[in-house]
Design brief:
7 helices; 6-stranded mixed β-sheet; Rossmann fold; 4-stranded antiparallel β-sheet; globular; alpha/beta
């Protein structure tokens, strides 16, 4: 299998506080990889290093075959991301927000692709309600639509179940499963271990600023869950 994400010995400090410490991670193509950890354990910082929002102090990061640091090379094409809480232009509809974001994508995103992306997450492309009137759950659905609208090879999702109701969580599961079935790769972080285990092939836990393999649950726990 081909590694679509490679992180090697990545360090990141904010002031005197070390958030990432020798963080090493490899995610294979077509896998669904989950990272769990408590708030402040470094999950979001790790993702922010991956998508170019912050620069690591040390280490090597390769995504989609391109080394990201050092230097100021453009980010590789082929990934979509939801990092922290989504932000949109409140005076515009969800459809218009996606249209503006699509205009920034090299090669563009067709109206049909945007329409499918909104419908896939349970939003109506024809809804004229402005985003400022959206609930938190609707904003999260719109964020998932923008991340997936151009069928990226890689989805990077930070607490993707945030603010979603049970129907929204079921939608998220379908979205990730369909993405993987089509050959796509997903990296998601969460503090909900059960949800990550339900969705992901490989699970890590943030320990002392680095992802470490999460032990498999005891067999009796698996049997109990099946009941």
């Amino acid at each position: 299998m081909t590694a679509i994400i490679e992180m090697e010995a990545v360090d990141k400090r904010f002031g005197r506080t070390r958030i990432l410490s020798q963080a090493t991670l490899q995610v294979e193509e077509a896998a669904c990889c989950g990272i769990v950890g408590v708030n402040g354990s470094g999950k979001t910082t790790l993702l922010r290093c991956l998508v170019g929002l912050i620069r690591p102090d040390a280490g090597r990061v390769v995504m989609l075959g391109q080394e990201l640091y050092p230097g100021l090379a453009p980010l590789p094409r082929g990934f979509g991301a939801v990092i922290e809480q989504p932000a949109f232009l409140g005076s515009l509809t969800g459809w218009r927000n996606l249209a503006l974001l699509a205009s920034l994508v090299p090669g563009g995103v067709s109206p049909a692709q945007r329409e499918r992306a909104m419908e896939r997450v349970g939003l109506d492309p024809g809804n004229r309600v402005k985003v400022r009137s959206y609930s938190l759950g609707m904003r999260q659905r719109l964020a998932l639509a923008q991340a997936s609208m151009d069928a990226p090879r890689l989805l990077i999702l930070d607490e993707p179940q945030y603010a979603l109701d049970p129907e929204g969580v079921a939608m998220l599961r379908r979205l990730i499963q369909e993405h993987q079935a089509s050959g796509g790769t997903t990296l998601m972080v969460s503090h909900h271990l059960d949800e990550v285990r339900a969705l992901c092939d490989v699970v890590y836990r943030m320990v002392h600023g680095r992802p470490e393999p999460e032990p498999e649950p005891p067999e009796e726990a698996v049997v109990a869950d099946a009941r």
